[in-house]
Amino acid sequence: MNKQLTLNGELLLLCERMEMARLLNVYLHFLFRQGMVLPAVQLVNYRSLEQLKPLAERLPDFSGSQQVRKILILADAQNDMEKRRNIILDVRGSAYFRSREYCAHFFFPGRGSGKRWRRGYMEDLLLETLREDAAEQSHLANLLNASAEYLVTVNNNRDPRQRLTNHSRHLLYAFFAGTEKFVGLSLAEAAELGAFDFQHPSFQELHKHFHELADNHKNTKRIQEGELL
């Protein structure tokens, strides 16, 4: 039986996967420290884009659904971005989403210089913003190259039908394994310890979306987390 989700925030962030939700949680606290004021936030992991529409259909029936004023849907662009975009636009066209004060979506890794969405994953953005000192005593490029060579070996020894997808994700974890500070940590845990530069220009597009969501609401810095089970 699906868990009945209670909505406690005025700003609802719908995240495609748990790693994304947890990373966004860390990023939100960074924005709060920078002085950004947001309505009370709730992060919900909808697990996969295929499950977004069923969730959207149930949202109006959840306790607290009418207090939601703003919604941001976050997803990976992957390699079939147009198909994924159409799924999200279909969801945004439903009565509940259209009746909210604000509704938008964001594709990781963000927009390129030509203002077009780039294909890929959240980890592509994180890889671009990895801090130089994250490599500790090693040179960043050297440790990344060694990690990439390791992944090539791993992929070559796998069945072609089981080759690794989301290369940047695996590269980041291989990179963390070569450090003392980040070894064994999740992306969000590494972010909390300063692995990524949230002020990097590559975060500009994501920052812009949250700037549009900001207001002077009194319930700032309150974050709820939820997951459909």
* Average pLDDT for all residues: 91
Helix content: 25-40%
Radius of gyration: 18 Å
Q: Give the overall shape.
A: globular
Looking at this protein, list some descriptive labels:
single chain, 229 residues, alpha/beta, five-stranded parallel β-sheet, 5 strands
Please specify the SSE layout and strand pairing.
Elements: E1 11-15, H1 18-33, E2 41-45, H2 52-58, E3 70-76, H3 81-92, H4 95-98, E4 102-108, H5 122-128, H6 140-156, H7 167-177, H8 187-192, H9 204-213, E5 223-227
Parallel strand pairs: 1-2, 1-3, 2-5, 3-4
Description of the structure:
This protein is α/β, with parallel strands linked by helices. It is built from 9 helices and 5 strands; from the N terminus they run βαβαβααβαααααβ. It has a 5-stranded parallel sheet with strand order 4-3-1-2-5, sandwiched between helices. α2 packs parallel to α3 (81-92), α5 crosses α7 (167-177) and α6 (140-156) packs across α7. It is globular and about 50 Å long.
Quick structural gist:
This protein has 229 residues and is α/β, with parallel strands linked by helices. Helix content is 39%, strand content 13%.
